[in-house]
Amino acid sequence: MAIVGGGFAGSILAQIARRLGHRVLLVERERHPRFVIGESSTPVANLLLEELGDRYDLPHLRTLSKWGSWQETHPEIACGIKRGFSFYHHTAGQPWSDTPSRSRQLLVAASPSEAIADTHWYRPDFDAFLFAEAGRLGVDTHESTELEPPHFSGDAVHLRGRGPEGPFHASARLLIDASGPRGFLHRSLGLADATPESHRGTESIFTHFTNVPRWADLHPPAGTPPFPPDDAALHHVWDDGWIWVLRFNNGITSAGFARKRRTNTGNSPASEWHEHLQRFPALAEAFRGSEPIRTFTHLPQLAFRTAQCAGPRWAMLPIAAGFVDPLLSTGFPLTLLGIERLARLLESGIPDDLTTYGDSVLADLDITFDLIGALYRVMPDFDTFRDLTMLYFTAAIHTETLRRLGRPTASNGFLMRAHPDFGPGLRQCLARAGREPGQATREVIQRLIEPFNLAGLASPPKHHWYGCDAADLYAAAPRIPATPDEITAMLHRAGFTS
Ligand SMILES: Cc1cc2nc3c(=O)[nH]c(=O)nc-3n(C[C@H](O)[C@H](O)[C@H](O)COP(=O)(O)OP(=O)(O)OC[C@H]3O[C@@H](n4cnc5c(N)ncnc54)[C@H](O)[C@@H]3O)c2cc1C
């Protein structure tokens, strides 16, 4: 089989296919290490990494799934510690301040300790390591290789192009596109762009910086937060957009915004960035003294969805099929769910029929479009925004817990979209939040999450700071259902210490 695109996803799938005994070709257009955006992982993504590592005998995937084991085994691969998600709501022209009930912030922990914390992947290092690892396992890897459109004939797909040593050609029984959004197959097969109309107006500007101050130094939390707010995917949200701040352990910080597109001013992305910060005094302060270490990238349209993502002898990985927005870091779990699905198919040989795979990928993507779309619509109303994120956190924590208990989750899909009770309720809440944000909708959300809420989310006494508290899980065990002994054993396996 051939895989086009040697990012982390293409390289992991190539390693799995090799372990399953397939002959694998992996073609990358650039040369590692190279810059690529998309860095913040999540508990579900890391659990998938761990499970793929165990199932396919790729132990490095397990060690890279947690901050602690990563630091012990691969300190040479830069990464950042991610203890959870931090959100702060800003109003243009006003300094940032909060109320005693913390009404302008939200902290949701993803782990109880540094040892088993999630990570931000410093992609130049991370992807270079995984690509090299694929080569070490016997994958036929090629860098700096530019391909022409593929040619399908009979039961083979033929690839031609040019590599560093001259003309390149190869044939395979299956072609997987891991080349990212608007990538190789979308273009060369001339597929239709099926990006929902309401998502075509979001742009993004980003780069890597040094010397970014820590938010908690500028605005020390009142009390003891569940985790240091900067050791997180830090989100600064305003009425029609947001900024991410992800800190790595090599002094570099990734930051950028996604926002409703402004009319083209002709300004450079760097001036747009600086001008934007000036509208929000606290954000200007949050980046004072920071220095970009590469040019800013501007994506005039962030979201993308192709019309078809699988066919005879070809399939796209989820990110090649579409991408919505970095909000809530959905890219990695979607990508790894796609890899998991393809890997299961590859266990019984090279699949001919990839229709079911393609349908699942697009359905997962579409519910992500619905979630992010609803979040954008309610950004001016931070209370509703925060409650909407509870749908995401409830589904993510529920899924992670079931997986850790060894219960089946595959049929639920991403965000439990296909769960018979949660799925329809989720869609209803997302549609309703856009139409009528406010108290009534927030109550509907709270009623929906209640039977699935394993982490004490939306609990008023917590005042929007949600730690990882084993007591919440024991209290919610009947909702799974699981016995206290099963919970204890699961927490032990996960390295959780309360
Ligand atoms: C602004 C932004 C921020 C994001 N932030 C996050 C986040 O914080 N968390 C998260 O989970 N997700 C995030 N994502 C999504 C994330 O980037 C993807 O999930 C992730 O990069 C997927 O990895 P990949 O290896 O499949 O694809 P990519 O990282 O896109 O890698 C594709 C590879 O294919 C190569 N390639 C491209 N075309 C060709 C070709 N024709 N031939 C050969 N090779 C080719 C490229 O050089 C590249 O190496 C973000 C995305 C964007 C746009």
Structure keywords:
FAD/NAD(P)-binding domain; D-Amino Acid Oxidase, Chain A, domain 2; 9-stranded mixed β-sheet; alpha/beta; 3 domains
How would you portray this structure in words?
The protein has 498 residues and is α/β, with parallel strands linked by helices. The chain is built from 17 helices and 23 strands. Strands 4, 5, 13, 14, 15, 16, 17, 18 and 23 form a 9-stranded mixed beta sheet that branches. A 6-stranded mixed beta sheet has the order 7-2-1-12-21-20. Strand 9 and strand 10 form a beta hairpin. Helix 13 runs parallel beside helix 15 and helix 14 runs antiparallel to helix 15. The site of flavin-adenine dinucleotide (FAD) has 32 residues, from helix 1, strand 13 and helix 11.
Distinct ligand kinds? flavin-adenine dinucleotide
Tell me the CATH topology of the largest domain.
Answer: FAD/NAD(P)-binding domain
Q: Name the beta content range.
A: 15-25%
Number of helices: 17
Shape: globular
Multimerization status: single chain
Unreliable parts:
none
**What gap, in angstroms, lies between the N and C termini?**
46 Å
Using DSSP, what is the number of strands?
23
Sheet with most strands: 9 strands, mixed
Q: Radius of gyration from the CA trace?
A: 22 Å
CATH level-two architecture of the largest domain: 3-Layer(bba) Sandwich
| Number of domain units | 3
Query: What is the H level of CATH, i.e. the homologous superfamily of the largest domain?
Result: FAD/NAD(P)-binding domain
Helix content: 25-40%
Mean pLDDT: 96
Q: SS-based structural class?
A: alpha/beta
Per CATH, the class of the largest domain reads Alpha Beta
